[in-house]
Amino acid sequence: MKLPFAESYKTKMVETIHRSSRAEREQWIKEAKYNLFNLRSEQVFIDLLTDSGTGAMSDKQWSEMMLGDESYAGASSYYKLKDAIKDITGFEYFLPTHQGRAAENVLFSTLIKAGDVVPGNSHFDTTKGHIEFRHAHAVDCTIDEAFHTELDYPFKGNVDLNKLETVLKQYPKEQIPLIIVTITNNTSGGQPVSMKNMREVHAMAAKYGIPVYFDSARFAENAYFIKIREEGYADKSIREIVKEMFSYADGMTMSSKKDAIVNMGGFIGFNNKEVYDKATMYNILFEGFINYGGMSGRDMNALAQGLYDGTEFNYLETRIKQVAYLGQQLRDYGIPTQYPFGGHAIFIDAKKFLHNVPKEEYIAQTLGVELYIEGGVRGVEIGTILADRDPDTGKNRYPDLELLRLAIPRRVYSNNHMDYIAASLINVFDRRNEIKRGFKILKEAPILRHFTVELEKL
Fold it and tell me: Of the candidates 456, 455, 452, which has an alpha carbon nearest to the alpha carbon of residue 129?
C-alpha cells in the first residue's frame, strides 16, 4: 500500500475556537458595517483573512524568543538576523523594519518622488498605496494569462516583457526609480514567477539602467514552484533556488510575517551601499535605530530562525499541498478558482461565482460576507474595493480579476478545517442564483479603503 501524504510537523499546543450560530453571524456582520476587517476574532470560526502574521511558530523559533538580546544598539539578535539574511538571500546590507509595509515606506521614501512611474507585476494594495501616496504611478505589466482564471499556466505571476519594455521606452530613466517584481504575485492569485522571467527582467532592467527590487513576502513558496514546475530545477534545493532568484534583484522588501512565519517583522535587503546609506535616515526616522527597526531582539531571533524554517522543502510541501487540497475540493464541485492554485491561498473568481451581482455593488465583498454568514469563515476581497479609486478621476477602478482570497495560515489548521471551508463555500455556491444584490459604500478612506470601509446592504 502506498503511504499517504502526512504533515511534516506535530501539534504541541492548541487554541479553542468558538462555533457561532448563523443568527449571531448575521448580527455581527451587520454591526461591522459588512466589513470583514471589523469583526472581532472570537466572532470568526476559521480565519482566512490573511496569512500574514497568523502562522504557528516552531519550537526552535520559540526557543530563540527566549534568547533575544534587547540592547538598543549592537544587539546579538541584530547580527544573528543579519547573518541569516546574508546566508539565505545573499544581500550584503539590510535594514530591519516592523513589517512589510514599513519596509516599503522606508524604501519608497528613499527612491520615489512625485511624477515617477513604477512598473511591476500587479502591485499589491500597500505597495500601490505607498506609490500613489507619493503622487507617483504604478503600472501593471503582468502577463495576460494571469487574468484567465481557468487557464492552466504554470507561472501566471510573470512580468510581460513587452509591456515592461513599452514603459521603459515611454519614460526617461530618471522617472523610473525601480521595477518591482512580487514573488509570488499575490494580486493575481498567489501565482509564482519563473526563474527565466526573473533573469529576463533583470537583463532588460540592466539595459535601461533601472534597479529591480523584489517584493519577497512569499519568496520561499515561489522557490518551491520553481523546483516543482520549471525545467532544470528539480534537483536543486530550495535555498539554492532562492540564492539564484535574489541574484536577479538589486534589493528586496520583506514582510516576514509570511514566509518567515513570525507574528511581526520585516526588512529591506540591499546590494547598493549608497542606497542603503540613504535609507538608514528614513529607517531611523520612521522605524527606530538601524539595529532593531521596530522589532524587539526576540522578534529578530524568531525571524532569523524562521528564514531557515520557511526554506525547508518538507515544510513547504506540507503547506502548499494543504492549499491545493482545499482548492481541488472546490474545483471538483465546479467552483471557479484561479488555477493552478497559488502558494498561500485559494482565490475564488467572484464574477463567475456571483454572476447576478453588478460590478458596481462589489461582487467579491458580497461573496465574502455570504461565506462568513454561512459558516463563520472569514476571507478577504481582492477586487474593486481593494483597487481603490483612480487618484486622477476619483472613479472606482474595476480590476480584471474580482477575487475572494482564502489565505491559509501556516501550520495552524487541519485538513478537517479545509473540509469545513469547502462545505461552507459549496453551500453558498448552491444558492448563488438567489444572491442578486451587493453593497454600496457609506464611508471610505482616500487610500487603502478596504481596511476601514463601511458598507450598506442593498
Answer: 452
Whether 124 sits among the annotated catalytic residues: the reply is yes
Instruction: Tell me whether strands 266-270 and 251-255 are parallel, antiparallel or unpaired.
Output: antiparallel
Instruction: Tell me what pLDDT residue 458 has.
Output: 95
Contact between 368 and 424 under an 8 Å Cβ cutoff? The reply is no
Dist. CA 352–CA 223, nearest whole Å: 30
CATH topology classification for 59-309: Aspartate Aminotransferase; domain 2 (3.40.640)
The DSSP H or E segment spanning 251 is strand 251-255
pLDDT value of position 125: 80
Is residue 278 flagged as an active site residue?
no
Active-site hit among 45, 108, 124, 233: 124
* Helices and strands, number each (H, E), in the chain: 16, 14
- Active site (annotated) includes residue 419: no
- Active-site residue, from 33, 123, 258, 417: 258
72 has a pLDDT exceeding 90: yes
For position 391, what pLDDT does the model report?
86
CATH fourth-level superfamily of 22-51+313-457:
Aspartate Aminotransferase, domain 1 (3.90.1150.10)
Whether pTM exceeds 0.90? yes
Which one of 51, 116, 140, 215 is the catalytic residue? 215
Give me 180's grid cell.
518591482
Q: What is the mean pLDDT of the chain?
A: 95
The reply to whether 217 belongs to the active site is yes
**Catalytic site residue from 47, 51, 116, 125:** 125
- Give the Å distances, CA to CA, from 66 to 140, 154, 301, 310: 43, 42, 9, 20
Alpha helices in 287-332 (DSSP H): 297-309, 313-332
Kindly report whether the peptide bond that precedes residue 110 is cis, defined as omega within 30 degrees of 0.
no
Catalytic residue among 103, 217, 302, 350: 217
> One of 59, 60, 72, 321 is an active-site residue; which one?
72
Question: CA angle, 203 as apex, 199 and 209 as ends, to 5°?
Answer: 140
Residue 188 has pLDDT above 90, yes or no: no
Domain boundaries, the chain: 22-51+313-457, 59-309
Main-chain phi, psi angles of 134, to 5 degrees: -90, 15
Q: Catalytic residue at 146?
A: no
Residue 392 — pLDDT band, cuts 50, 70, 90? confident
CB 435 within 8 A of CB 356: yes
Q: Are 226 and 233 a contacting pair, CB within 8 Å?
A: yes
375: cell is 459558516
Nearest to 316 by CA among 421, 238, 418: 238
